[in-house]
Specification:
Blueprint: H1 9-18, E1 22-28, E2 36-41, H2 43-49, H3 53-56, H4 71-82, E3 87-94, E4 100-111, E5 118-127, H5 144-177, H6 189-206, E6 210-217, H7 220-227, H8 229-246, E7 252-255, E8 260-266, H9 272-284, E9 289-291, E10 294-296, E11 300-307, H10 317-330, E12 336-338, H11 341-363, E13 366-375, E14 381-392, E15 396-398, H12 404-410, H13 413-433, E16 440-445, H14 447-450, H15 454-462, E17 469-474, H16 484-496, E18 499-505, H17 512-518, E19 522-525, H18 527-530, H19 537-552, E20 556-559, H20 565-573, E21 578-579, H21 590-600, H22 607-610
Parallel strand pairs: 11-12, 14-16, 16-17, 17-18, 18-19, 19-20, 20-21
Antiparallel strand pairs: 1-2, 1-5, 3-4, 4-5, 6-8, 6-11, 7-8, 9-10, 13-14, 13-21, 14-15
Helix pairs in contact: 7-8, 13-15
Length: about 600
Amino acid sequence: MQDNPLIPSQILDQITDKTCEGLALALASDDDGAVMYLQWCNKAFTKITGYQAKEVIGKRGTILIGSSMDQGSHLIIIEKLMNWEQFSLKTQNNRKNGEQYWQKMSWTPLSDMATGNRWWLCSLIELEHRPDMQAEEKMPDLQGASRDLLTGYAEKIERLEKENKRLHELAKVVAKESKEDALTGLSNRRHFEVELKSWIQDLQKTGKDFAVFYVDLDRFKSVNDTLGHDAGDRLLISVANMLRRLTSEADLIARIGGDEFVILRPLGSSALDISSLADAIVQEMHAPFAFEGKSTFCSASVGVAIANAKMEIPEQVVSDADMALYHAKSNGRGRWSFFTEEMHAEAITTKRLVSDLLIACEKREFVPHFQPVIDAATGKIAGAEVLARWVHPTMGMLSPASFLETATAMGILKRIDEIIFSYLPDVLALFDSAGVDVPRLSANASAGRLADPSLIHDIRRSGVDPKRLIIEILESVYLERIGDVVHWTLGELKEMGVAIALDDFGTGHASVQGLLKINPTVLKIDRQFILPIVDDATARALVASIIGIGKSLGMKIVAEGVETEDHARFAADMGCDYLQGFYFGKPMSSKDLHQKLIENNGVFWSEHALR
């Protein structure tokens, strides 16, 4: 667009400088609208945010996200930016000095037709009072025609949803009144429950034992995702026909869930009748499934339990079979497992653990312990790894090995992280009071936490100085398959000043290509490679090659599993920058490490030992 000769350039400059609306321009990544670097801002922008222009230019857009901004607003901003959507929202934020204020933040995508670059125009308006959030629009204002069109679509969708709901309710009524599963023709759940009661009554009267087979398809969702729901329905019908073929008229077969089947079979004179059926089901399901010229694999896992007259609660036999099924899946899927009393005891323990973990989160029973990381050149402390411990009221101090898997399945790792991180600012202050520099603390992040954008928000809210934090990524996250959200999270962490470490390197999951994608600051060699280096030349050669890879990429190397002085000397001589292991100390409380820092002035390995 040509300049308007009637408007002097000085007037245009004054508009930019004197407007009360804070404006900024950011150059965005072509691949991800949430990745941007600020290139310009006006005076109102610096007045509102407290940042000078020189402090803003060249910085990531995340400088505009203060610790007081609520997590919901933060996630909305990320989603909208990633999708290149124009939007506005009102939220609480912080100036550079930490002062809280309310603002209206607007983002508008721009394109440079000459260069192809993509830009964001950010507008900030400071609000005098907290806005009425319920009155806020959750989407940008639309022009009349577009709004009418959207309203029309919404009305159509609502009508379709109502009709779908009506048909769904009708189908449920019909299914409830019928004994058969509509898709497969097998018994449905309701009929199965009636028959199970009848079988149990017969068991109690005549003592006739019976077996329950709980069958679950292992990769049924992938069939729906890759071949479509019609293929999924065809597969279920095929499985039903297969089960009919493998069973007899004396057996009862039911489909009780989406891809779950149950078989009731009278217990014959030979146990082979039971194991043979379980084997046959597993073997049949190993064959590929074909649909419209395409094929895929969908194995099955089977759990088997026996109902006998000696059982106190025969109705529990289905739950027993379900436990056996879970055991089969946990051991690799595509197999069958027989219920044992050990499984029952394990299930009771797991239920108790779940209950205790929920209470532990409420009572904040998780505390951090710290294992020192030593500078190989000086012998001084260079940091410490943060390791969660659970102070159980009856079992005492528990390591993550006793609760991490269950906590992950429950989805409470985020809460445990929040509790552990809340201690870290005070812990760093405690270490600093010893007069010894402990530059950084390192903490592990699971795959699920890395894929959760709220991790960034949680770190900001914790009050930990990001420049004193290292996030360790387990190599088992399998770096080649991480998604866009994880890439974004890692980028934001680095921009904040958080260092990234790749833990347990060498255990077989991450290739050098995956290493290049992440480009961590620190590479930690797994202890299984460090332990044999004193006596095994082959182990030393392997460690040397890992060190060479890391050094060629500019990374610092940490040797884990240093248990003796010989381990320490070999690892240091081979080029490891840092050392960690029981030789320097087991994980300990913050008070114990603080006391140790006072006693040894931060020196864990004397220069004499180095020689």
